[in-house]
């Protein structure tokens, strides 16, 4: 289309246009542009059109208020500053109820709410390793006797019950609330420091969550919290930590998967609307090619034992110059091709760095999705190939902000992905650490702050549907998934129509 | 290329690749990608290759230091926090000396350094209108007697000499330093507030600069400061304010242009290396279609009188919803087509707003360049047309940061323009208000923080050459311009080679 248009459009010819011709041409150009944006392939039903009116009414009210007074526009601010404000937004509340399909990028120990984590600290036999007279907890461990291993200078093991009594319950709750998430904002100055902070939380949670009886409960609760947020399908990246028992014994890794299997079975029995969950084995990227070879073998073997559960492979941890993806090509190419790759890549704003080039290797290794792909818009050729091969980008807007990649949602590169209709799914990464809902806050920020102003229900529906289309489900499973989601979706549309007046009149609680 | 490649590249086939084939394929893909980036059409001479080694050595030293310790990476911070640090950078010092070609986006009353402005306040007959017992100056006016007009509540006219004596010279200097620029950072919370602040400085400077004897001197000094920063050609947007005389008489607008003409003639005579300067008439966009019709007429008439000087038209002032470009289409289409358009458009991160759509109208009106075009990467179709028609984007990285569009240079959308080889020039907008050099700071930020890590002398040379290619100069004038620039460029290359050791060993002053 471009070459023909250009003859007509050339800058000098344009000046000879009549106002009428100008307006016609403008209309056509806008139609072309609009039609190419993500979500515009969706045909809304009559009911959806009606529900859309309510949604857009809420969106435009909030948007216009933000244009008038930028202080009132949440996507211009850090999530930590606006978390509670957002929860009062009627738009957010409606998005909260929306069936969002799947959450494709989660990490197994950063899924549950802080509240649930604090609850776990009341369990029997829990010990805490503290410094500063108990003001800072560095490690947890379930044990009958005082743990003998001490990995922290000046650390002191103390029974959690006694620590709580000594410091007072209210104090301890406050302290844990801070320990378990990345608040306050002021500590997070750079991408590296934010990563260090995040990794320290993973490390703190390790002994609390890898305790055999807790592990399954955490996972079950994660599925529950996700389900309550309108998520019917979950893919989880996991390091596959071995679990430990009260006596200190470590179990073989396949027990970890066995627990997943069992809890998932139980959760699905309790929640027939829930679609499924799959596991992506994701060891740390900071390793040697030799160890990577070992990970590939482990993954292959575990996949034989759990062929429906463990279906993919990824590498996690901060991308850096020392461990580019290309370092492991020889080993990764040995992975049986039915185990799909879902690589994190390009979670950086350092254009042209080895981190940024991981996108190229993810593509060349045949990845089915790219975790973050924050750098993708700086690689137009790769972006074309990503589109051509239907590789979905797992966009995690809030995660990118908290990890200091970008400050303002209105500048998030996903807007360019949306404009180019690049396969796109929304995820939250580690919602536990930013105290957000499993998907709702990310949907809210993307809908209000990243997508174009007139992005509407079509955008939301396309994004939800994408999460199944680009999942690790088989084609048959996808068909069932789509049915289960569709039935919830129709309910939500009905709810939105029936309660339009209430939804628009007052902020929900 | 894409369709053929894709057969070979399809994600499932890729997994059957041998490591050798993988590496070859990767190499080819990277070459394709690299070759398409802005600047890669440039063939460096042997001498340039040698100078490039020094440049890249400086760049990589600073870049790698920044990767190790992000606190030391200037492009991750606000310019106001790092201004003095940057001046110590050997890379910055070398860029400062580089012949940069033209500065295509400047505004006539925000070009000179604060130092020069403070100097002007020592002139005879200057009055200041102050509030808060002189702590805040709201207006300047040259006059024999005390000015009679009072536009400010509680304002008080006072002779500048007396005010300075009363408040003390050191105090007054500090106060003026703050009045004349947008420091400190803390006051600038949102895009709107930053704009308000900037407009208040324009308003404060009005009476100081539109005084007939000062106007010419300001322009001459602006050309001098730009010239000292390696700029040989300047295009200036101007409101064409009428000038006033000591008695208060206002002169007809053509006198304003006459002063430009005369000062430019004088400057060129004094500086034979300087290429030229052109004027783009740029009234405020916040007006009625009827008034716009008047501006078009004025522009047409003035162009007849100053056909070589006043060659283009633009609209200035903050883009907003009330005054979209499309509102003035009927009037703008009446402009004779030899007067080129150089529209500001899309200086916003509000995707899908009328501000954002100004880009579409700028294109359809046949603009030859787009001022800012910050929103362009959200409009892939327009971006293709912009490239096809060779419309240059005037990228002003520091201006975008100060006006609160984006915080981190590594996220500036111009990286995507560079990756797509979109015609691209660098400019500074209003360097006077951010205390930066006319072009050097913007070049430094773009080179170190926006362009890919391996962007080198080819990028710098392409950017400099683009500023002449996309200027309002005629083809003949461009040939001469290129010669004048080339001779300076060769000198700089020689300087860089000859002083390589000194340049690399110690920070210059």
TrEMBL record, chains A, B:
InterPro entries: A_deaminase_dom, A_deaminase_N, ADGF, Ado/ade_deaminase, Metal_Hydrolase. Residues 15-95 form the Adenosine/AMP deaminase N-terminal domain. Keywords: Hydrolase, Metal-binding, Secreted, Signal. Its EC number is 3.5.4.4. It is an enzyme of class 3 (hydrolase). GO terms for cellular component: extracellular space. One of its GO terms (molecular function) is adenosine deaminase activity. Its cofactor is Zn(2+). Residues 184-481 form the Adenosine deaminase domain. GO terms for biological process: adenosine catabolic process; inosine biosynthetic process. Pfam families: A_deaminase, A_deaminase_N. It catalyses: adenosine + H2O + H(+) = inosine + NH4(+). It is found in: Secreted. It comes from the Eukaryota. PANTHER family: ADENOSINE DEAMINASE (PTHR11409), ADENOSINE DEAMINASE 2 (PTHR11409:SF39). Belongs to the metallo-dependent hydrolases superfamily. Adenosine and AMP deaminases family. ADGF subfamily. This is Adenosine deaminase. It comes from Drosophila rubida.
